[in-house]
Design goal:
The complex is a heterotrimer of chains A (about 525), B (about 180) and C (about 200). Chain A has about 525 residues and is α/β, with parallel strands linked by helices. Chain A contains 10 helices and 26 strands. The chains are: A alpha/beta (about 525), B alpha+beta (about 180), C mainly alpha (about 200).
């Protein structure tokens, strides 16, 4: 069989190209690129932190895309855009925060713009002159997450994580302090004023006391205005008091805890007194209110004047009023006082406090029966102030009227009465002098004196006569000597004329010698001048 | 590649006969030495694939910051368009335009042209735009600037820098695959 | 021997040989407009070169970068930038910037000027060397843009307000113009013109 025929019957093999990938291998490259880009995109989205908005009054220093947000100097976010609120009243800054900080964006997280700032005696934020303003953050401690904030005008006075205690003080007015003014304890800066606002008819002041000073604050603590210099002139004398130079300029508050009650409850609200004396004046709660009626002038008696017993202040005057009882014939002055019995040690047989008020009353009644009264006395020679003094007087009969409210204490008239008594007693003494015997002796003495004078007179006359005549003669001679035509005068005049002529001649000679000094040797020429 | 065809030298106008080439060889003009053609035929497929990769790299390079600079605790970073924007903000608008065109717009056009191969218009566009896409020069500029800045403060290269590097490589490979 | 002599076009883009004809002188492969030689090549080259030379002076005299920092400010020209790099110890960088921003533009201007002059004068001196010179010029042209990008990056990054910030100076604009103009000059120059003179001489 011929080969060609064989070939014709055998079917042709089908050519198959070399196995090729559908897609050339180069497409791996874009695939890899896509995977990488996708992974990058996903990573960015996952790592993206929350977006927050903070409202400020102005965008001063804030730039979109540039301004950072920092907490403790670590960057935690960047401002992405700055625009107005819909009503154009505020500026809203939108910021992209780091994811790790998201858990700290809570209710009480605070934001403010850090710029160079001078406030309350300190300068802050100077580094922003170099690095540009940034937004400071103070992380809050709350649990509630928050994404929309309102920025503060300035840095918060106290960081959220400062150790210490916030307190509230109630004052009549704000005095001279401001936000950031110091609070002093033992002349050390123990805290700051964090804010104040009107409250009813006073001012509510928020302060923050730093640790460890807050350990000294308990229910007994007294706070007072420590601004400036305290100068006081009162029944006690002159006093000058100041906390520190800073407090003179920027005001301040000081506090002290008088030792007293060992078991002190903690408290957070206090009254703010005007000065230290006022603050420490009433540490006691044990008071006894009394009223005293005076029937004399109480001019100079001020509320706050001390009530004194033998030099010890046992209370103070609360009020001075007129009391007019209907139908009464006289107008009395009622002085309300508060006594602090704890200033007096009550020497008592019983040790317990039970029933102490009743025992005290009995004791007071006993004293009153012995003559204890209240009296007005002048406080000092400088001022016309009065104070109330307890003392024992030789007076009988009055008692404390415990039934009245407040209890009425018997009084004693003021010391002017004593003066009258004194004068009266002197007059009496004078009266009792034995003047009758004295008159006889007096007459004899006068007579002796008269005789003595006559003797002196006679002796003097004998001596004086010749002396006087001699004096007269001497005077006449002198007079003659000094008369204008007396020889003495004439001689004197002549002598004067001679002296004048000599002086003239000397002058001529001096002139000539000046012109002709050789004349001293050769003599004067004839005819020369 | 035409083996018995004539080729003309684009730089000296000499007519020559084409010669067969072994793999990896390139044919030079006999008179002036210009490259006439290479052993491997231009492969629009390959060019397209690489162009896609380049496009992705381009996207990353434009979005992510190229470099960050830290001074006084503040970190300042910039993307590629950001650098052009900075020039514009500094008042140099023509300069900003030049930078944007040579680093952003023209490279994008190159990629677009590569993707449309082997269309005639694409080829024309490619040849027109090629000399003006200067991403590699930009990369070197970034390196020099970084070196200058590293003398002053801390410099942190970013993802964008890597993407630009990838873009350069991919673009070069794609263009090589697309043309003779 | 020349394509032009046979009335054959060589596409400058895709190097395809084509006959002139009904396509309206467009390359059949890529559609680019065809011409035997680049139109008005010499004139355009000279024009761009002249502009580049004029702008070369302000580009090097005016500062390209203005630095301001806390204690003072400083203007930097291209040359002073190179010197600063040299002085601060990074001489490789100084070399790079020197080559890219000072040598290359000068080289381009001089070479292109020389090439254009040689063609203008009909010189037949070493056409291969000239062709190679042209290829070199075309290749390195773009690298002069280096300094512009350096300034751009520095401006974008050093923005710490009072502490330090950098701005581009007027010299940068002039320098960018010089780079662009020399690139345009290189693109306008038709290297085939080098060979025309030799061919004419040979003929």
């Amino acid at each position: 069989m011929p080969p060609a025929e064989i070939h014709a019957e055998i079917p042709q093999a089908v050519a198959k190209g070399r196995a090729r990938w559908r897609v050339p291998a180069v497409w791996l490259v874009p695939l890899v690129a896509a995977l990488l880009a996708g992974w990058l995109a996903v990573k960015t989205v996952i790592e993206r932190g929350p977006t927050i908005t903070v409202r400020f009054k102005s965008a001063d220093g804030i730039e979109a895309g540039k301004t950072k947000l920092k907490y403790r100097d670590v960057q935690i976010g960047t401002v992405t855009s700055v625009w107005f609120s819909p009503d154009l009243k505020e500026v809203v800054a939108t910021a992209q925060m780091e994811k790790d900080f998201a858990s700290h964006l809570v209710e009480d997280t605070r934001f403010w713009v850090v710029r160079p700032r001078i406030a309350a005696g300190s300068v802050s934020g100077l580094q922003t002159l170099l690095s540009g303003a940034y937004i400071g953050v103070d992380a809050g401690k709350s649990d509630k997450a928050r994404r929309e904030f309102t920025g503060l005008d300035g840095p918060p006075v106290v960081d959220a994580d400062s150790a210490g205690t916030p307190l509230v003080l109630h004052a009549a007015n704000a005095g001279s302090f401001e936000v950031g003014s110091p609070v002093f304890f033992r002349r050390l800066t123990a805290g700051q004023v964090t804010g104040y606002q009107l409250d009813g008819d006073g001012v509510k002041v928020s302060v923050f006391i730093n640790a460890p000073f807050d350990q000294h604050v308990n229910a007994n603590t007294r706070f007072w205005h420590a601004s400036g210099i305290d100068v006081k002139l009162d029944a006690g004398g002159i006093r000058v008091d100041t906390q520190s130079l800073a407090s003179i300029l920027i005001g301040g508050i000081a506090f002290e805890t008088p030792t007293g009650n060992a078991d002190a409850a903690s408290a957070t609200e206090f009254k703010l007194f005007d000065d230290r004396a006022a603050a420490l004046k009433n540490p006691e709660t044990d008071r006894l209110a009394l009223t005293m009626l005076f029937n004399e002038s109480v001019r100079g008696l001020q509320p706050g004047a001390p009530v004194d017993f033998r030099g010890i202040t046992v209370g103070e005057v609360d009020a001075v009023k007129m009391r007019m009882a209907p139908g009464a014939r006289q107008v009395l002055v009622a002085v309300d006082v508060t006594i602090y019995p704890s200033r007096i040690e009550w020497q008592d047989a019983t040790a317990s406090n039970a029933g102490a008020p009743a025992r005290r009353r009995r004791l007071i009644d006993t004293l009153v029966a012995s003559g204890l009264r209240a009296q007005l006395r002048p406080a000092s020679l400088l001022t016309h102030e009065l104070y109330v003094a307890f003392d024992f007087f030789p007076a009988k009969g009055a008692t404390v009227n415990w039934a009245a409210s407040p209890a009425q204490f018997p009084t004693q008239k003021a010391t002017l009465v004593e003066l009258e008594t004194a004068i009266a007693s002197i007059a009496t003494k004078l009266d009792s002098l034995p003047l009758a015997e004295l008159s006889g002796a007096r007459r004899q003495t006068l007579q002796t004196a008269a005789r003595l004078l006559n003797d002196i007179d006679a002796q003097m006359a004998a001596e004086l006569g010749p002396t006087l005549a001699q004096a007269r003669k001497t005077l006449a001679a002198a007079d003659r000597a000094l008369a204008s035509d007396s020889p003495l005068q004439t001689d004197t005049r002549q002598a004067m004329r001679e002296v004048a002529r000599a002086a003239q001649a000397f002058r001529v000679l001096a002139d000539y010698l000046e012109r002709h000094p050789e004349a001293l040797i050769v003599g004067k020429k004839e005819g020369a001048q | 590649m035409p083996s018995a065809a004539l080729v003309g030298c684009p730089q000296c106008d000499l007519l020559q006969r084409a010669i067969p080439l072994a793999a990896g060889e390139s044919a030079l003009c006999g008179r002036c030495g210009a490259t006439l053609y290479r052993a491997r035929a231009p492969s629009p497929d390959r060019a397209r694939a690489l162009a896609v990769a380049a496009l992705i790299a381009y996207g990353v390079a434009m979005t992510f910051p190229i470099v960050a600079f830290e001074v006084q605790g503040s970190v300042i970073e910039t993307t590629l368009p950001g650098a052009a924007r900075a020039l514009y903000d500094a008042g140099m608008a023509p300069l900003a335009a030049l930078v944007i065109f040579t680093t952003t717009i023209f490279p994008l056009l190159v990629i677009a042209a590569l993707l449309r191969l082997p269309a005639a218009k694409a080829l024309r566009l490619l040849h027109a735009v090629q000399p003006w896409a200067m991403v590699e020069v930009f990369m070197l500029g970034v390196l020099v600037a970084l070196a200058k800045l590293a003398l002053m403060a801390i410099v942190i290269p970013g993802v964008g820098a890597l993407a630009v590097g990838a873009l350069i490589v991919l673009l070069a490979a794609a263009q090589r695959a697309a043309t003779l | 021997m020349n394509a032009a002599a046979r009335e054959l076009y060589v596409c400058s883009g895709c190097s395809t040989l084509s006959r002139g004809g009904p396509q309206g002188e467009r390359c059949p492969r890529c559609g680019a407009a065809l011409s035997f030689r680049k139109p008005q090549s010499l004139a355009r080259t000279w024009a761009f070169l002249a502009a580049a030379i004029i702008l070369y002076v302000p580009a090097n005299v005016l500062p390209v970068m203005h630095t301001e920092w806390l204690t003072g400010s400083q203007d930097d020209t291209i040359l002073s930038g190179v010197l600063y790099l040299l002085w601060s110890g990074s001489w490789p960088l100084a070399l790079v910037v020197f080559i890219a921003s000072i040598s290359v533009p000068l080289l381009k201007i001089v070479t292109l000027g020389g090439l254009a002059a040689s063609v203008q004068l009909g010189s037949t001196w070493r056409p291969q060397s000239r062709a190679r010179a042209y290829r070199v010029v075309e290749f390195i042209g773009r690298w002069s843009m280096l300094d512009i990008y350096v300034v751009a990056i520095l401006t974008a990054l050093v923005q710490a307000k009072a502490l330090a910030h950098i701005e581009p100076g007027p010299g940068a604009l002039a320098f960018a113009a010089v780079v662009v103009l020399t690139m345009l000059a290189a693109l306008s120059f038709d290297p085939r013109l080098i060979w025309d003179a030799s061919r004419d001489a040979a003929c």
